[in-house]
Amino acid sequence: MSKILITGASGFVGSFLIEEALNEGLETYAGIRATSNKKWLQDDRIHFLELDLTTTNHLKEVIEYHQFDYIIHNAGVTKSNKKSEYFTVNVDYSKNLAEASLVSRKLKKFSFISSLAAFGPADYQKEKVLSNHSIPHPVTTYGHSKLKAERVLKELKSLPLIIFRPTGIFGPRESDFLNVFETINRGFAPSVGFEEQWISLIYVKDLVNIILKATISDIKNKAYFVTDGNLYPSAKFNRAIAESLGKNPFHFKVPLPLVYVIAGISEGLSRISGNASILNMDKFQEIKARNLDCDISNLVQDFDFKPKYDLQAAINETTEWYKENKWL
User: Fold this and answer.
1) Are 74 and 90 in contact (CB under 8 A)?
2) Closest CA to 115 of 70, 154, 72, 147
3) Structure pTM?
4) What is Dmax (Cα atoms) for the chain?
5) For a Cys-Cys bond, which of 171, 287, 316, 319 suits 204, CB 3.0-4.6 Å?
């Protein structure tokens, strides 16, 4: 039985990756921290490993002992009040794990979960779509850190690397999009800016399915943007949520300058409290983008990628989970 290590296993995407790996019949190791919450990791087949990503010596010992066939590096920081933390965790720790993974004589694939943020919105691209031929234009510190991590990993020539750049990921257990569901559930459906915003999305179950499929494939040294293949006006996303909730919310537009002011205030308050805010000046750069279109033709060509869920079905399932778990 092939062995797989998945870092960031206790988080939103990580916990679904663990489930998908188990479904694939892999001997599955969940890379966690000592403080990680195992709420979503209750399957008795899971092997737990407390990883110290700050040092390659520890990682080499772990990997040399277990001799993993596959590693999916999903751990990272998406929100922080300290810009340096993005680069420490997303770049330095990724490099540490990648370098250490090379001691495995059996390693067939090192999958790195990057982000669309590494290339920024499609607004800045001449073709108005993101692809591997695009010139990266990250607009957030998080995006810059993910881009740097990609470049650092690519320098390890003997690393059997594959990179995934998901767009907005939603689904059960996710807390950021939950804010949209909560707002619409209260009867309001705001959209930011007076010009239509076009977004791309991927349901978490479709995401982990293609990540596992690509990881255990023979393909390596390639990178893929990951969306469901569609481009949606943000209003359609809101309408789909409203339908799943049985609501008829009040739709209105929020001027970008007002969001800019709110983001600045929110960032200031988060620095005082020490708690990272969902809305800050970095997030504003993403919110003001009007086009998040991605080219996934290589994903379709290499893996015959077809999402199992359409948008409404995915949102319905997410809403049902939120309600069952009393998040809504």
Assistant:
1) no
2) 147
3) 0.95
4) 59
5) 171
